[in-house]
Amino acid sequence: MMSTCLLAQTRRVLPRSLDRSSSRSSLQSKAAPTMISQKQSEMPDCDHRPVAYKGSSYEQILKTRRNHLTPNLLAHFKKPLVIHAGHMQWLYDHEGRRYLDMFGGIVTVSVGHCHPKVNQALSEQTAKLWHTTNIYMHPKIHEYAERLVAKFPGNLKSVCFVNSGSEANDLAMLMARLHTGNQDILSLRNCYHGMSPYTMGLTAHSTWRFPLPGVNNGLVHVMNPDPYQGIWGGSNCRDSPVQTNRDCQCAVGCQASDAYYNELEETFKYSLPRGKVAAMFAESIQGVGGTVQFPKGYLKRAAALVRANGGLFVADEVQTGFGRTGEHFWGFEGHDYLPDIVTMAKGIGNGFPLAAVVTTPEIAASLGQALHFNTYGGNPMASAVGIAVLDVIEEEQLQRNSLEVGTYFLTGLAKLQQRFEIIGDVRGKGLMIGVELVGNREKRTPLATPHVLDIWEKCKDLGVLFGRGGLHGNVLRIKPPMCITLADANFAVDVLARAITESLPENN
Ligand SMILES: Cc1ncc(COP(=O)(O)O)c(C=O)c1O
User: Fold this and answer.
1) Which pLDDT tens digit goes with each residue over 277-320?
2) pLDDT over threshold 70, residue 8
3) CA distances (Å), 423 to each of 186, 386, 437, 502, in order?
4) Can you say whether the dihedral through the CA atoms of 428, 327, 481, 124 is positive or negative?
5) What class, spelled out in words, does domain 118-395 have in CATH?
6) Assign residue 336 a region: left if phi > 0, alpha if psi is -120 to 50, beta otherwise?
7) Contact at 8 Å (CB) between 481 and 112?
8) Which residues contact 276 (CB under 8 A, 6 or more apart)?
9) From ligand 1's centre to the CA of 166, what distance in Å?
């Protein structure tokens, strides 16, 4: 009998005629890797054999979801997938179909689904001790704390473990307010920092906000420095192998960055108490907001301005940490500044509920004013997983892989942009990539949702799972496990080309 992997593979052969040879002028040659681009139209091989699915029927799952799970749960695709097994960059549905996972459980599966080393670390730990809280000195959390803080520059040497990104950002808000004695916290429009009552206020997307009193207490959303969709932007603003197709006259520096920074200064002048700010939060690249990168120099100057006004700067590395952006281990390093607090989740645990806040001992001291407790944060299982994830990133050089495969991937996507008007923008760094689909390239208007969904669904049918993001859901988000290969990148680019071609009105 033909294996499941092979079956899935033969179903998804793309025409070899797809042409990917055109070039793009705004590509910066410095970032192009010296790798061979070969035509690759078939789903790359995989020798893993998933276990057969033996669970509830598809209909039963749908029924349970409809009747017993809360309606906030998103279900992707017209016929939502039942995913029951995973292996590295691959996912398997209940009928044995294999998919290339370009979204990694929403930027969470950093080193690969069911990575053997992480599995082994977890199973060794579960055989010894699952859980005890930090009232006892179980060894793993201490070993892990040493390993994690060693990854940080400067005096970022104190860590508090929690279970989710929202909790990490909640705690960072608390620490900033306690340490400074100030109340007001700034965040950028289009940001996503979580869904707890505290962080829902920080998050600045109408789609993610519930109409509750008090959500915005002490929170100010400032203009997003978005060089593609924002008021200002140009052809050399961002730290990416691919630039926007907007023009600019900057000979030195970045005028867009200056203009957005001036806007931030205006907020300080008009909306905040002088010298009395608690913090500003920023993702190093906005994730949920659609892989939005900021103009060079903006965050560094913003951090200085916040500090001059008595506040702390918090880098939310929930999506951009752990080597994903390729050049650096932490996204903030790409912006050349040192935050006061760093929050992390998702990729830290490869899917295990683990998150952390790292800060200086002085700022951490604010938590000594009262008891602060978290039952599971950094428990033996979580810490064992966290250590294994760090080991794998180092041993398999996944940060370097993110840089090489990510740059190559971006280059391939930029070539697609030349072929298809509806690709308005390609952006990102390493394996943190966005492809913005537009209805009108000049005006940068979002592509109509049914058309976006059609392309997205076609990609799924051809074997590639992309994420979506941005306020209008028109940005394809590509943030796969960092173990993907050049062949995977080729396949994903070819699938996207085919899906776009088939979706165009002249082909329907
Ligand atoms: C940048 C960022 N911060 C915080 C969060 C919240 O993390 P969690 O869903 O683990 O609470 C997310 C989740 O997507 C995120 O993308």
Assistant:
1) 999 999 999 999 999 999 999 999 999 999 999 999 999 999 99
2) no
3) 32, 37, 5, 15
4) negative
5) alpha beta
6) left
7) yes
8) 182, 183, 184, 309, 310
9) 6
Quick: pLDDT tens for 361-394: 999 999 998 989 999 999 999 999 999 999 999 9
Task: State the average pLDDT over residues 112-140.
Answer: 96
Ligand 1 centroid distance, CA of 49 (Å): 32
Q: What is the token pair recorded at 218?
A: 């002490």
From ligand 1's centre to the CA of 443, what distance in Å?
Answer: 31
CA 151 to chain centroid: 19
Q: Please tell me whether residue 79 adopts helix, strand or coil conformation.
A: coil
Residue with CA closest to ligand 1 atom 7: 165
Q: How far apart are CA 237 and CA 296, in angstroms?
A: 6
For 268-337, the three-class secondary structure string (H helix, E strand, C coil) is HHHHCCCCCEEEEEEECCECCCCCECCCCCHHHHHHHHHHHCCCEEEEECCCCCCCCCCCCCCHHHHHCC
What phi, psi does 31 have (nearest 5°)? -90, -10
Task: Using the mean position of ligand 1's atoms as its centre, give its distance from the Cα of residue 356 in Å.
Answer: 12
Q: Which of 411, 399, 403 is nearest to 430 (CA)?
A: 403
User: Residue 200 and residue 214: Cα distance in Å, rounded?
Assistant: 11
> Angle 193-197-201 (CA atoms, 0-180°, nearest 5)?
55
The answer to whether residues 236 and 30 touch, using CB atoms and an 8 Å cutoff, is no
With a Cβ cut-off of 6 Å, ligand 1 is lined by 164-166, 169, 192-194, 283, 287-288, 316, 318-319, 345
Counting from 1 in the atom list of ligand 1, the atom nearest the Cα of 283 is 1
Half-sphere exposure of 46 (CA within 13 A, CB side): 27
Relative to the CA of 355, which ligand 1 atom is closest? 10
- What does residue 7 show for φ and ψ, rounded to 5 degrees? -60, -50
Instruction: Using alpha carbons, select from 485, 390, 325, 397 the residue that is nearest to residue 118.
Output: 390
Cα dist from 297 to 238, 247, 311, 474, whole Å: 9, 19, 19, 27
